[in-house]
Amino acid sequence: MGEKLKIKLSIADRVYPLTIDPKQEEGLRRAAKNIDMLAKKFEQNYAVRDKQDVLAMCALQFASKIEQGDIQESESVKEARERLRALDQLVRSKLTVE
User: What does the entry give for GO biological process (predicted)?
Assistant: First the structure.
């Protein structure tokens, strides 16, 4: 296994030391930055001061984006399957005519 990297991430004014694979660093730093930015937005726009409430709202927003993406992907897969079935039927009908 490769070397591990020790980093510290700051989220909502708390520092979290982590030991990670180096290839995870950029993604984790971006995620921490996005959480911090969204938390500040919630604090400013909704006058929420309790960090736990702010972080819960951040978690809800990020999780809902993932779920909505899964729903849209599922609908796209269903549509693609229907198109493939129609194409398959068309090809089969052309092959059996001869």
Answer: cell division
